[in-house]
Write a structure and sequence with these properties.
The complex is a heterodimer. By secondary structure, chain A is an all-beta fold. Chain A contains no helices and eleven strands. In chain A, a hairpin with a 2-residue loop joins strand 5 and strand 6. Chain B has no helices and nine strands. In chain B, the strands form two sheets. Chain B has a five-stranded mixed beta sheet with strand order 1-9-8-3-4, with no helix packed on it.
Chain lengths: 117, 115
């Protein structure tokens, strides 16, 4: 079946430009996560949605970062006035359940590689 | 969530077992051990998870010590396609609100499988 998809796969932006990154989770998955991965590092948590509700945005690095999931499926991560330090791979993940005695498996998309010049 | 310690890199000959260690000495009783891997230019991929019993699936086996302070991921017959960064993560499962559902990645172990 279809996995998590992300678009665009690559994005080059000039400093100060706004960008929007899209995530299509696996159909029916309740939970959606965004992570940021700098070169040579592990992914770092940005924000979490349960359906359309953004329950945790503690990882967003600044108020230039904004995420939404208005209908509880597709999500968009928007970065305003991009800076060079925003250059990274942005990963989206989804999971089926919000509660499970054995935990949830997160399924990741391929990521969007953002380069800010 | 408890912190984990993994070797930076490991090599393995193709066809041999790859044993990847992870220390999590501060793990709590309600925290699970998860393993993910990330092949170059791809998103992380779930491998296996466990609480205290050893677990096996079609990809790997997970051995957790009795005191739960360390674990080993075993790839029984490594292939070139298993070359990846392997992440050991411990976290509380089953939380609905807040950041309890997030994964906290370290820098992982770069496994290189060679001919």
């Amino acid at each position: 079946g279809a996995g998590v998809s992300q678009s665009p796969r690559y994005k080059v932006a000039k400093r100060g430009q706004d960008v929007a990154l899209r995530c299509d989770p696996i159909s029916g998955h309740v939970s959606l996560f965004w992570y940021q991965q700098a070169l040579g590092q592990g992914p770092e948590f940005l924000t979490y949605f349960q359906n359309e509700a953004q329950l945790d945005k503690s990882g967003l690095p600044s108020d230039r970062f904004f995420a939404e999931r208005p209908e509880g499926s597709v999500s968009t991560l928007k970065i305003q006035r991009t800076q060079q330090e925003d250059s990274a791979v942005y990963l989206c993940a989804s999971s089926l359940e919000t509660f499970s005695a054995k935990g949830e498996t997160q399924y990741f998309g391929p990521g969007t590689r953002l380069l800010v010049l | 969530d408890a912190k984990t310690t993994q070797p930076t890199s490991m090599d393995c000959a193709e066809g041999r077992a790859a044993n990847l260690p992870c220390n999590h000495s501060t793990i709590s009783g309600n925290e699970y051990v998860y393993w993910y891997r990330q092949i170059h230019s791809q998103g992380p991929q779930y491998i296996i998870h466990g609480l205290k019993n050893n677990e096996t699936n079609e990809m790997a086996s997970l051995i957790i010590t009795e005191d739960r302070k360390s674990s080993t991921l075993i790839l029984p017959h490594a292939t070139l396609r298993d070359t990846a960064v392997y992440y050991c993560i411990v976290r509380v499962a089953g939380m609905v609100t807040g950041g309890g559902n997030k994964l906290t990645f370290g820098t992982g172990t770069q496994l290189k499988v060679e001919l």
